[in-house]
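#dry-run=false #mode=assembly
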Amino acid sequence: DADVTQTPRNRITKTGKRIMLECSQTKGHDRMYWYRQDPGLGLRLIYYSFDVKDINKGEISDGYSVSRQAQAKFSLSLESAIPNQTALYFCATSDLHFSGYNEQFFGPGTRLTVL
Amino acid sequence: GDSVTQMEGPVTLSEEAFLTINCTYTATGYPSLFWYVQYPGEGLQLLLKATKADDKGSNKGFEATYRKETTSFHLEKGSVQVSDSAVYFCALSRGGATNKLIFGTGTLLAVQP
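#status=ok
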């Protein structure tokens, strides 16, 4: 079984709809991240969380919100979807050691289309 | 702020050709540098990394050397295979509490038999 799972894998929705993307992990990691990937722009960080009580904005958080329901679950919500939020969304996790870099492990992605 | 620039693709090669994908970075100090690979329909996987100047990361026949003097981390492979077809991302991180990754735009590699 995959260590980092995302649901749904594909979603088509309409402008103005609320949508939630879910991420679960079995790696026991404290840190979780949400990125979006757009062609020609690479991956950009939306939100990240160190634990269930700690949520932080990334570089492109406008129009998004998140919820860390448990150590293993981190959800991304679009309160009112708009077409320029059409993208590939990735969840990632990493361990929490304050010195050095901790490898991030990515889920398979959710392809979201907003019509 | 920190940034990563990598060559635009797509890069199309024949099997067994030599591969170079250029990556340069802008950052103060000594960030860690990475190459991630994204195979079709999958998430990103760490391919290799280097944490200090002159370090060479290597994995699956791929190599990259952390060059502080040229602020570069070019990815190379001596003989590519069809199975290497993927999108390759160069990235940097300062680690620490936030552990954030800053990605380049990605380079699509297509290897033809």
